[in-house]
Amino acid sequence: MPEEALAAADGDCPRCGKPATLCVCAEIAPIDNRIAVLILQHPQEQDAALGTAQLTHLSFKRATLKIGLSWPSLAKVLGRSVDPRRWAVLYLGSARASQIARGREVVAVDRKGAALPEQDAALAEIEGVILLDGSWSQAKALWWRNAWLLKCRRVVLAPHRPSRFGKLRREPRRESLSTIEAAALLVSRLEARPEIETTLSATFAKLLDRYRATRRQPSSASSSPAAKAASATTG
Ligand SMILES: [Zn+2]
Fold it and tell me: Are 41 and 66 in contact (CB under 8 A)?
């Protein structure tokens, strides 16, 4: 599609915000999810190349992406009245998850990070999940600036498989999973639909393949996607 390639060369993809060389969003067919997805993105999240918030947003029919630092309530974020106790925020502390509920990849925890005794009942009540998108410190800032998150149920992840990121991302991230991997794991486990994880995982793998391919090419100053991505701003 030469026309599209030309148009994209002038700017990032208007749909996923990525440089043309990294855009995989045309192939995304949104999943008809029952568990809603809310992504809160820190405004300084700069990872235009490998960030996955927008791809996650595009991957679900019921997903909301908000960029900002603080909101007065979950209802204000979503624009409708909801019970925050039926929404689960991916909690920042996850170290003990694998020990406390062996075999489970999504674990409901209390305020001290300990697994709740009635996992199935706790997880069955969840109607939406909240992901904080950004570096560790950015996610922490979002956590502390949004007191209403304390009313939400907390879940942690204990993924059986490591992130596909491998060594591509230097900065240690929450759960060391990308936002798209975390959303995939949460929704697929809560809905008991493994195909959701397979689909999102494939999207993420395509992005990483493209990224690795661009890095293998000899860098030609400002036209290199990495340089372009680094200077890109969100529109
Ligand atoms: Zn795109």
Answer: yes
Q: In whole angstroms, give the CA distance from residue 155 to residue 110.
A: 9
Residue 169: name the closest of 125, 114, 207 by CA: 207
Domains of the chain: total = 1
Predicted confidence (pLDDT) per residue in 68-108, tens digit: 999 999 999 999 999 999 999 998 765 554 555 677 889 99
Give Cβ neighbours of residue 216 (< 8 Å, ≥ 6 apart).
none
Cα 191 to middle of ligand 1, angstroms: 27
Cα–Cα dist 110/107, whole Å: 10
For residue 133, report the distance from its CA to the centre of ligand 1, in Å.
19
Residue 130 is part of which domain span?
31-161+174-212
* pTM for the model: 0.84
Ligand 1 midpoint to CA 89 (Å): 27
